[in-house]
Design a protein that fits this description.
Strand order of the largest sheet: 8-7-6-11-10-9
Mean pLDDT: 85
Number of helices: 15
Number of domains: 3
CATH topology of the largest domain: Phosphatase 2c, domain 1
CATH architecture of the largest domain: 4-Layer Sandwich
Largest sheet: 6 strands, antiparallel
Helix content: 40-55%
CATH superfamily of the largest domain: PPM-type phosphatase domain
Distance between the termini: 44 Å
Number of strands: 23
Strand content: 15-25%
CATH class of the largest domain: Alpha Beta
Low-confidence stretches: 1-7
Structural class: alpha+beta
Length: 584
């Protein structure tokens, strides 16, 4: 069952000027989806736009839009391009038997087409496509919501860790909460070592929170007592109370949220947000954010309270710094666990290439290099990717690149290496808003270099394309280098548009025993040796040729020894990724 919006089930909008086909499509979808979605139809593009506008204005989730191509007036590709401007998140499907290649290309490039299905359609294929499209729609929605929560929490993490004076700390926190949650009043009650302090900020007051006496704060005392006694948050929505306020005076406070701030079983304070204007104000998404924030606030609040104690100021300053470093390191270590978890399972690679090796050594805890592979139809894809930078920035780029590769190959079935790189460049360009810089938001030139291979075991062929990364082939103990396009994925060069940059594919016929090497520049760019210079591509290739007679699984240890001997005491320069594959 799909997740329901505030207005209920997701909608599917079908457009076709042939009414019998339209009715047949609606009946098939209703029968196949078994009531999990609502089907709306229109027999022209103009009526479809009007219907879409009504649904969006009503707050309904329009997850999928299916359109014929040949219709009187506005054609299907024009209609879907217009739909993409109004509702880009919708999954758009072009359903026709007479669309030209130009029309299909037009809607793919300008309307973010999810799928093209030819008439007459296969009912099972159509139903599976629509089900996957709806699931993809809500998955993206959840991902966007999760990313927004992470961004908001990071913003608050910066806000509450860069201030150590309690009055200013409370003022900044309450002012930000007042703006973000649209509350009419926010209150922070703090259990300081020497005394209890209460801070209040309302939308009608100054930007700086004021200290007040708790008895003068006018808080729902029974709510605070229940919240602190049970050590959990308490939410009261006036419009949906259903007797939960029996025997209390809560109704006079409208809708409110109350939560204890606890660190290691110590109650440090209570956070209270109130809204007397909106009867149902704290939505599920907002409550998820507030509950996460309440878990994040006690540590920095404890730090601030420690700074209030002058006798322990010097000693506690050192402890706070250590706690912050430990907290940051713990967070990055946890991020590393997430990053490693999304990397593909090596068992899948072993099934296709029993003889292989992976030398993967991040410069920092998290990494900007990553490997990726997947099997689609009769092809097996492998990529070695080097994202801009390393550490946390590189890791963010790697998650973006990994997600886009999965979408392009697994979901959208782009199978040609050059097409995949073209689409990947355009998605990175759009995601980072490259080419759209302003004075307040400078342009991001981040991107990635990579080598992407597509193996066709049935025909013994390899198709590959690359961005600033070569492919090495070892055959009969002779190493050959195949260069690729000298341009990166992402980044705006001299004001170019994303369509100005195109990549090219190359094809090789493989033989049993061939060895292929995919790698980032981390190994070859490492400084070291007696003259403190780069390792270099030539020396790297000589090592691979010298070890041609040894099994590939031994290469990880061999390369690591060579690398460490060269580096010596020099710090690691960059992330390192080397992949070796032997054709069986």
């Amino acid at each position: 069952m799909y997740e329901l919006s505030m207005k209920g089930k997701p909608y599917i909008l079908c457009i076709d000027d042939e009414r019998p086909l339209l009715d047949s499509l609606k009946n098939e979808l209703n029968r196949g989806l078994k009531g999990e979605a609502r089907i709306e139809i229109a027999d022209s593009a103009e009526d479809g736009l009007e219907l879409l506008d009504e649904l969006l204005a009503g707050g309904f989730e329009v997850a999928v839009i299916i359109s014929d191509q040949l219709m009187p007036g506005m054609k299907g590709d024009e209609f879907l391009i217009r739909v993409n401007e109004l509702h880009p998140r919708a999954r758009k499907i072009l359903l026709t038997g007479q669309a030209s290649a130009e029309a299909v290309g037009n809607v793919v490039n300008r309307a973010n087409l999810y799928r093209f299905i030819a008439k007459p359609w296969d009912e099972e294929d159509l139903l599976l496509t629509v089900q996957q499209a709806i699931a993809s729609y809500f998955t993206e929605d959840k991902l966007d919501a999760s990313l927004q929560v992470i961004r908001d929490l990071n913003r608050y993490a910066t806000l509450v860790t860069e201030e150590v004076q309690l009055d200013r700390w409370a003022s900044r926190l309450l002012a930000q909460l007042l703006r973000d949650t649209h509350s009419t009043r926010v209150v922070l009650h703090v259990m300081a070592p020497e005394q209890e302090l209460t801070y209040e900020l309302a939308h009608t007051s100054e930007a700086v929170a004021r200290r007040i006496d708790r008895s003068a704060a006018g808080l729902p005392q029974q709510a605070l007592e229940r919240c602190t006694a049970r050590r959990t948050e308490l939410v009261y929505n006036l419009a949906t109370a259903n007797g939960q306020a029996a025997g209390t005076d809560w109704e006079s406070f409208g809708t409110f949220y109350c939560a204890p701030l606890i660190k290691q079983d110590r109650l440090l304070g209570v956070l209270y947000l109130e809204n007397r204007q909106a009867p149902v104000h704290y939505t599920e998404e907002r409550l998820a954010f507030l509950n996460a924030l309440v878990q994040q606030l006690p540590a920095p609040l404890d730090n601030v309270l420690l700074y209030e104690s002058l006798e322990e100021k010097v000693r506690e300053r050192t402890r706070i710094i250590e706690e912050k470093n430990e907290s940051i390191t713990d967070s990055i270590n946890y991020a590393r666990r997430i990053q490693l978890a999304i990397l593909p399972d090596t068992e899948q690679l072993s099934q296709y290439f029993p003889q292989h090796f992976i030398f993967y050594q991040p410069k920092d805890i998290v990494c900007g290099d990553f490997y990726w592979w997947t099997e689609v139809q009769d092809y097996f894809f492998v990529a070695a990717v080097d994202c801009t930078g390393h550490g946390v920035p590189g890791a963010f780029m790697s998650v973006l690149g990994y997600s886009f590769l999965n979408q392009l190959v697994r979901e959208h079935r782009f199978l040609e290496p050059d097409t995949i790189l073209n689409q990947l460049h355009r998605r990175v360009f759009a995601a980072l808003k490259q080419g759209q810089h302003t004075k307040d938001q400078p342009e991001l030139h981040d991107g990635m270099d990579l080598i992407l291979c597509r193996f066709d075991r049935r025909n013994g062929e390899l198709a590959f394309a690359g961005a600033n990364r070569p492919l090495l082939l070892l055959r009969d103990r002779q190493l050959s280098e195949f260069k690729t396009d000298r341009q990166p994925i992402g980044g705006s060069l001299h004001g170019e548009s994303p369509e100005d940059r195109n990549f090219t594919s190359q094809t090789l016929h493989l033989e049993t025993g061939d060895r292929l090497y995919l790698f980032s520049d981390g190994f070859t760019d490492q400084f070291g040796g007696e003259d403190h210079r780069k390792f270099g591509s030539r020396r790297f290739q000589e090592i691979l040729e010298a070890q041609a007679g040894r099994p590939l699984p031994e290469h990880t240890a061999l390369l690591e020894r060579e690398y460490l001997a060269w580096r010596g005491t020099t710090p690691q320069t960059d992330d390192i990724l080397c992949i070796g594959l032997e054709v069986g």
